[in-house]
Write a structure and sequence with these properties.
Layout lengths: L3 E4 L12 E7 L6 E8 L2 E7 L12 H4 L1 H5 L9 E3 L8 E3 L2 H18 L5 E5 L6 H11 L4 E2 L8 H11 L3 E3 L9 E5 L3 H4 L6 H8 L4 E5 L5 H4 L3 E3 L6 H14 L5 H7 E2 L1 H7 L5 H8 L3 H13 L3 E5 L9 H15 L8 E3 L16 H4 L23 H10 L7 E5 L3 H4 L3 H8 L4 E6 L4 H6 L2 E4 L8 E5 L6 E5 L11 H12 L8 H11 L6 H7 L1 E4 L6 H4 L8 E2 L3 H6 L18 H6 L2 E7 L13 H6 L4 E4 L1 H6 L7 E5 L4 E8 L7 E5 L41 E7 L11
Parallel strand pairs: 7-8, 7-16, 10-11, 10-14, 11-12, 13-22, 16-17, 17-18, 23-27, 24-26
Antiparallel strand pairs: 1-21, 2-3, 3-4, 5-6, 5-18, 9-15, 19-20, 20-21, 23-28, 24-27, 25-26, 25-28
Helix pairs in contact: 3-20, 4-20, 5-14, 9-12, 9-13, 9-14, 12-13, 16-18
Length: 729
């Protein structure tokens, strides 16, 4: 596990003796930034970055700095409530925690007894402190069905790909003192999004080493503007681009021959497989000139050490695993594996979370929706198995293969963040019992919940954070600085509900679980001691494979995947055109001639959160759709006009932003939008949300069950007859 270097335990000078300063980690997004919370009289009066923290060195983004507004926001949920009118009426009655937990326990135990625990579905938002606890409680209750909106569309396709290719999880060596000579940013804009402990600040630290940079993105992002090579790819064709990179590296003999010969499996088969995947072939698919593709592949291959910074854009089409496979092979071919300034295996500071997966018998696992069909998502081969969302929604709507009797939602505004919003509404209206635990009363809670529970925000709870996710090179505590009203952390709610239900597992205290995680990981400390120290930074050991090999069936990096072959999937990466595109559905393209890409990030929000925070809203008042000036002129649209964006599934409006640097005939929209200031039960959820346009229908990724969130077809028009949604002042 490596040698610990304990830092961050310097005494903090406090001018006011009544002010308590708590060291913690900001979880305004996926996190990683050390923060100092100043509390006086149980009021959060100030937040600042922790200068000792290894991943942000005292910096915070707007989301982190606005946490005082989040904690004390007048619209925060502060006590449990029961719906007293029909669904969607917005009528609520305050109840006690004992009443709320008692009613939930009674209903859930009755469902378990009469229909089976598998008919209860657990839902969560993306990658927050409580996410692993959602599945943990579900497993304790006996249901294998838990889901998260990005599970098959964000991060886990990459994790599964790394696991089957390398036998473990790799991350970028963001804290290397020497830094990379080349960084390939693929479908990723980390200076804005800051995911999984690779914070936007550590990304900027990489750039201080002045590496050459390559950006693959249909839009000229912040990074693309400064890149040495920008590849403005047609959305959804990343797999073709990746295969062309492999072709160039192999045919021009730019690969690390010694490393490939000793540590990889299947090179000859891969070389033969990509023989025809030339840059000229890829140009016809991606629209990027062949010579630019060739130049980028040469740059990445010849400037080592190098990093591949890949993002969730490559996980938004139904060929995600094969796309990830093509890209994952690039560091292996070039020897950028477990070297300083490259892709590295993590130090696993605490190891596996106690998810209680092993408490369920095999026959229960087989009831997981998607188990037989999507083996990397829901089956025995999954890195971390979860339910297939479209299959769950089908079960909710039709009862096939069995009805869903309860849906417990924790920290997720389902209407905003699940694909194809109208089908989400139809499905949830058909579930007899729904609970919602969150910071605010969202449109999802207003429309569907029977019971609402008030969740604690990140300054109000205790948890362990290890970064990067699943690699765990830095261990940080989330430490409770205050707790207001009747709020409880999600973790505490799970423990209380497990006890109320009389479950065998998940009843120990949160702190006992955290202490157990530290002990299992070989850390000689309790959670309280970790909180006092501030963080633990692991000494990185490089070239670990020289001692341990790779945890794959062949003991090597599998360019040719024996595990995929055994499962009946292609063992070598292949290109597949997105199911809805100008190429695959030309008839649809006649009516919807533009290509839609979704998910653009802004530095003021995390997914669907933050729209009610005034300071954040001032930074981004309205949803934005980026279009090329030539496309705008064609449709009579000017910069700042509100425009309709319409797909075969729905119609929304966002504000046009004319951008020279992007693919012509492409529309790039932001997601997660709703308008809390409008009030009512819907709060503008159906006006501008990207997921009114996205698709959760088949075909799905054969391995992962992923559906199409971008590279879809759309049309646009100027809004002429309706005023835009009112923005916060």
């Amino acid at each position: 596990m490596g040698i610990e270097v304990v830092v961050g335990d310097k005494a903090t000078k406090v001018a006011d003796p009544d002010v308590k300063i708590t060291k913690t980690v900001c979880k305004g997004c996926h996190g990683g930034c050390g923060a100092l919370l100043h509390v006086k009289d149980n009021k959060l009066i100030k937040v600042e970055g922790n200068p000792d923290a290894p991943l942000n060195h005292g910096s915070l983004c707007p989301i982190g700095y606005s946490v005082t507004d989040l904690v004390h926001h007048p619209d925060r949920l502060n006590y449990p409530m029961r719906r007293k009118g029909p669904r969607g009426s917005g009528q609520w009655q305050r109840i006690s925690w004992d009443e709320a937990l008692g009613e939930m326990a009674e209903k859930l135990n009755k469902i378990r007894a009469e229909h089976g625990a598998h008919t209860i579905v657990m839902g969560t938002g993306t990658g927050r402190h409580h996410a692993p606890w959602v599945s943990r409680f579900g497993h304790a209750m006996g249901t294998p069905n838990w889901m998260e909106p990005g599970f098959a569309q964000c991060f886990f396709p990459r994790l599964n790909t790394l696991n089957i290719t390398y036998g473990g999880i790799l991350c970028n060596d963001v804290t290397s003192k020497s830094g990379p000579k080349c960084v390939l940013y693929w479908g990723h804009n980390p200076v804005v999004s800051g995911p999984d402990g690779e914070t936007r600040f550590s990304v900027r630290d990489q750039l201080t080493h002045h590496p050459k940079t390559i950006v693959v993105d249909p839009r000229e992002s912040e990074l693309a503007k400064k890149a040495d090579i920008w590849l403005p790819i047609r959305p959804g064709t990343d797999d073709a681009m990746g295969l062309a990179f492999i072709n160039v590296i192999i045919t021009e003999k730019l690969y690390n021959a010694e490393f490939v010969a000793k540590w990889t499996y299947g090179f000859d088969a891969l070389a033969a497989h990509v023989k025809d995947n030339t840059p000229e072939w890829a140009e016809r698919i991606t629209t990027v000139p062949a010579e630019k593709i060739r130049a980028a592949a040469r740059m990445f291959a010849t400037l080592t050490p190098g990093m591949l910074e890949w993002g969730c854009a490559i996980e938004h089409t139904p060929n995600t695993i094969q796309t990830c496979r093509a890209l994952a092979i690039l560091p292996a071919l070039t020897g950028n594996v477990d070297e300083p300034g490259s892709w590295i295996f993590g130090m696993e500071a605490i190891g596996h979370f106690p998810d209680l997966l092993d408490t369920m018998p095999p026959e229960v696992h087989k009831k997981r929706l998607g188990y037989d069909q999507f083996k990397l998502l829901a089956g025995e081969e999954a890195f971390y198995p979860g339910a297939h969302i479209p299959s769950v929604l089908k079960a909710m709507r039709t009862g096939d293969p069995y009805p869903i009797h309860a849906f417990l939602v924790f920290g997720n505004n389902t209407l905003a963040t699940y694909a194809n919003t109208h089908t989400i509404r139809e499905a949830m209206m058909n579930v007899p019992f729904i609970t919602h635990t969150d910071l605010f009363l969202t449109p999802t809670a207003q429309n569907f919940a029977d019971i609402v529970l008030p969740a604690a925000s990140w300054p109000e709870l205790n948890e362990i954070s290890a970064y990067p996710y699943f690699a765990e090179n830095v261990l940080m505590p989330q430490t409770r600085a205050l707790l207001l009203e009747e709020r409880k952390s999600d973790e505490e709610i799970f423990v209380a509900l497990a006890r109320a239900m009389g479950l065998e597992h998940c009843t120990e205290s949160v702190e006992d679980v955290l202490d157990g995680m530290l002990a299992k990981g070989g850390r000689n400390m309790t959670f309280r001691e970790l909180s006092e120290r501030g963080y633990v930074d692991m000494n990185i050991e490089y070239r670990k494979y020289e001692k341990k090999g790779f945890k794959t069936p062949t003991g090597k990096i599998e360019l040719y995947s024996t595990r995929l072959e055994k499962m009946g999937y292609p063992p070598l990466p292949v290109y597949v055109e997105p199911p809805e595109s100008p190429i695959s559905t030309p008839k649809v393209a006649e009516e919807f001639p533009l290509v839609l890409t979704t998910g653009a990030r802004v530095p003021f929000y995390f997914c669907s959160e933050g729209r009610q925070i005034t300071r954040l809203r001032k930074g981004s008042k309205d949803p934005q759709a980026d279009i090329h000036p030539a496309t705008a002129e064609k449709y009579g649209i000017k910069d700042g006009d509100w425009i309709w964006i319409e797909s075969r599934r729905g119609k929304i409006r966002q504000k046009a932003k004319l951008v020279d640097g992007m693919q012509i005939d492409t529309v790039a929209i932001q997601f997660g939008w709703w308008f809390p200031e409008e009030g009512g039960v819907d709060m503008g959820i159906y006006k501008s949300g990207a997921n009114l346009l996205t698709n959760n229908e088949p075909p799905f990724d054969p391995q992962m069950g992923t559906y199409q969130l971008r590279a879809l077809l759309c049309r646009i028009a100027k809004v002429e007859d309706e005023a835009p949604a009112k923005a916060a002042e």
